[in-house]
């Protein structure tokens, strides 16, 4: 009988807690979730408290012996370490344990390789993996001869693990050249959006916070969403109408995570910059996650690194249906449930209310002979009141400061 079903990889999770380390338990839980997202079965978790990491094997000899026994007894095929291993540590662990050993960074890169759908996304992940691989081309050890496949080996392909440094550098140069072409095209599109009068909103947040669910609720179009880490990688921008004819664009980008590999941040810089050119950032937070405060800090730190803290921001605590007596840590905030049937209307009202805070109020009188142009005004402004006088229609509302000059195109004597 031929076995057609792929056997699930059995993995051990290993972590070392240094003195004074924060969020260690959260990081270990997250690593287990990452392994499951990559399709593995977590069969055990080993932790150790130390003053510093062992330079040769990451963990101490006693703990390493325990792990080796577990590997032999429980048919473990992969050990995942909750830290960035040095090439030396990686090779030593694989030689001692006799199984594949990957670190947190390799696991995240592997998931990105699974999730990338667009040509640009695949190039970015491939580039990040090659940059991670380059310093790890260390002789003819297990790291170079590994042929097992499975988690930690997706993306560039196993044959490329045999490439020498020069070949890898050539590949990096070639991919960077391809990405420059893609980025130039993206820049042209971005500049057109910046020149337009359309208000731009960007969704940002920790992975699995519910950004894609919120985008789907507002656009009524299918965007891949799932209760898993890194469900969305590629930046997606869609046009929506918040009220009447008021049109805005909504951009969903990759979710952040603690210790996001620097190779990924560098490779995905152009994608992440989609969020830098918005008029309003919506920071989506999973209110039901017990670690949401740490998630918030991670996102805010990455925003700081990307110089995005000066962009107007709205905090949305999502998954309200899963919490009771919720206490927020970010203010001002709104508590929502993107899964609610009436979430679209609620989210539209929340966004409009926030936009009015930094929009410029106006009152303008439009002569009846120019009434045909009111439709154009409706696409860029929030109209709150309309009344009629003998000489024309009086309109009150709010408009983005960048579009305020457009009011001069109307009957300026009524402008206030």
What does this protein look like?
With 416 residues, the protein is of the alpha/beta class. It is 37% helix and 22% strand. The chain contains 13 helices and 13 strands. It has a 6-stranded mixed β-sheet with strand order 6-7-5-8-9-10, with helices on both faces. A 4-stranded parallel β-sheet has the order 2-1-3-4, sandwiched between helices. Strands 11-13-12 form a 3-stranded antiparallel β-sheet. Helix 11 links the parallel strand 8 and strand 9. The longest helix is centred in the middle third of the chain and has 31 residues. It starts with 9 loop residues before the first strand and ends in a 17-residue tail after the last strand. The relative contact order is 0.09.
Rg, Å, rounded: 26 Å
Proportion of helical residues: 25-40%
> SSE order, as H and E?
EHEHEHEHHHHEHEEHHEHEEHEHEE
**How does the major sheet shape up?**
6 strands, mixed
Helix tally equals 13
Mean pLDDT: 82
Major sheet: arrangement of strands: 6-7-5-8-9-10
**Span of the ends, CA to CA:** 82 Å
Count the E strands. 13
Summarize the structure.
By secondary structure, the chain is α/β, with parallel strands linked by helices. The chain has helices at residues 24-37, 61-73, 87-97, 104-115, 119-133, 142-145, 165-195, 211-219, 262-267, 269-272, 292-305, 343-358, 374-378; strands at residues 10-18, 41-50, 78-81, 100-103, 199-205, 236-243, 246-252, 280-286, 313-318, 333-335, 360-367, 381-389, 392-399. The strands form three sheets. Strands 6-7-5-8-9-10 form a six-stranded mixed sheet, sandwiched between helices. Strands 2-1-3-4 form a four-stranded parallel sheet, with helices on both faces. Strands 11-13-12 form a three-stranded antiparallel sheet.
């Amino acid at each position: 009988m031929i076995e057609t079903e792929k056997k699930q990889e059995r993995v051990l999770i290993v972590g070392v807690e240094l003195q004074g380390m924060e969020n260690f338990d959260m990081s270990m839980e997250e690593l287990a979730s990452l392994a499951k997202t990559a399709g593995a079965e977590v069969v055990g978790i080993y932790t150790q408290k130390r003053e510093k990491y062992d330079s040769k094997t990451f963990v101490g000899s006693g703990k390493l012996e325990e792990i080796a026994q577990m590997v032999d007894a429980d048919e473990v095929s992969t050990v995942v370490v909750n830290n960035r291993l040095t090439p030396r540590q990686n090779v030593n662990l694989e030689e001692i344990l006799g199984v594949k050993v990957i670190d947190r960074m390799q696991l995240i890169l592997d998931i990105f390789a699974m999730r990338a759908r667009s040509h640009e996304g695949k190039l970015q992940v491939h580039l990040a993996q090659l940059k991670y691989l380059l310093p790890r081309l260390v002789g003819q050890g297990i790291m170079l001869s590994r042929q097992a496949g499975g988690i930690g080996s997706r993306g560039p392909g196993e044959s490329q693990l045999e490439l020498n440094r020069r070949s890898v550098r050539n590949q990096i140069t070639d991919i960077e050249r391809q990405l420059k072409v893609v980025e130039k095209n993206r820049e042209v599109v971005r500049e057109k959006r910046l020149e337009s009068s359309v208000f731009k909103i960007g969704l940002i947040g920790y992975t699995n916070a519910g950004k894609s669910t919120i985008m789907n609720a507002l656009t009524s179009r299918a965007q891949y969403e799932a209760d898993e880490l890194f469900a969305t990688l590629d930046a997606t921008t869609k046009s929506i109408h918040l009220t009447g004819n008021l049109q805005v664009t909504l951009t969903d980008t990759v979710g952040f995570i603690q210790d996001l590999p620097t190779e990924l941040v560098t490779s995905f810089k152009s994608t992440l910059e989609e969020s830098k050119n918005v008029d309003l950032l919506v920071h989506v937070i999973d209110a039901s996650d017990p670690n949401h405060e740490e998630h918030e800090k991670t996102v805010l730190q990455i925003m700081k690194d990307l110089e995005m803290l000066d962009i107007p921001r709205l905090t949305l605590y999502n998954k309200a249906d899963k919490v009771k007596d919720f206490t927020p840590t970010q203010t001002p905030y709104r508590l929502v449930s993107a899964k609610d049937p009436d979430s679209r209307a609620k989210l539209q009202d929340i966004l409009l209310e926030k936009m009015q805070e930094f929009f410029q109020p106006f009152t303008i009188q439009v002569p009846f002979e120019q009434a045909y142009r009111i439709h154009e005004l409706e696409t860029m402004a929030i109209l709150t009141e309309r009344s009629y006088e003998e000489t024309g229609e009086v309109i009150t509302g709010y408009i983005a400061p960048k579009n305020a000059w457009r009011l001069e195109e109307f009957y300026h004597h009524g402008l206030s």
